[in-house]
Amino acid sequence: MKRFLPALVCGFAASVLSTIPGLKSFSCCLIIPAAAYFSLLLDIKINRFSDSIILSKAVAFGLLTGLFASFFSTGFEVLITYITRTNEFVETLPELNNMLKVYLANPIFAQTMSLFTRIQQEITQYGFSFLYLAFYLLNTIVVDIIFGIVGALFGMHFINKKTNIE
């Protein structure tokens, strides 16, 4: 576990930044890749490596940083939703409903909207919805891991380029 502590720390920092409303939009494309890059830098500083970073190490750090970020950000999202009994999903559902009515006149639409409405009611009534938790966690795991790996690969490239020059 000590070996992957930089990924844990940077994943936690990324999840904290991802909960800030103005920065939430930049989570996948900037915050998570930057966190993976910084986790590699932190690992180099802690262990005092001077060698090049290998591909498997970069992928492992990107994957773990993304995974930790997704778990922490899901936890923060669920906690904030429980306290406030609302979130972006609840607030934008009426707009989504209006948009889908215009563009999709399909029986699947009615089933989907009834599921979404049930999730919205559970959140506003109890502050928690297991389906929302499952969908949110699945979404953040997939997205954060992909962008974490991409960020770590870019980080590996830049770090290796820097160590080869010096």
Summarize the helices and strands and which ones pair or pack:
Blueprint: H1 5-18, H2 27-47, H3 55-84, H4 88-103, H5 107-126, H6 130-165
Helix pairs in contact: 1-2, 1-3, 2-3, 2-6, 3-6, 4-5
Would you mind describing this structure in some detail?
The structure is a single chain. The protein is mostly helical and 166 residues long. 83% of the residues lie in helices and 0% in strands.
Task: Report the sheet-strand fraction.
Answer: under 5%
**Largest sheet composition:** none
N- to C-terminal distance: 31 Å
- Please give the number of β-strands: 0
Instruction: Return the average pLDDT rounded to an integer.
Output: 90
Low-confidence spans: pLDDT under 50, at least 5 residues?
none
The best one-word shape is elongated
Query: Structural class, from secondary structure content?
Result: mainly alpha
Helix content: over 70%
Number of helices: 6
Topology pattern, helix = H, strand = E:
HHHHHH
Mind telling me the C-alpha Rg?
19 Å
Based on the model shown, name its key terms.
single chain, 166 residues, 0% strand, mainly alpha, 6 helices
Q: What's the gist of this structure?
A:
The chain has 166 residues and is an all-alpha fold. The protein has six helices and no strands. It has helices at 5-18, 27-47, 55-84, 88-103, 107-126, 130-165.
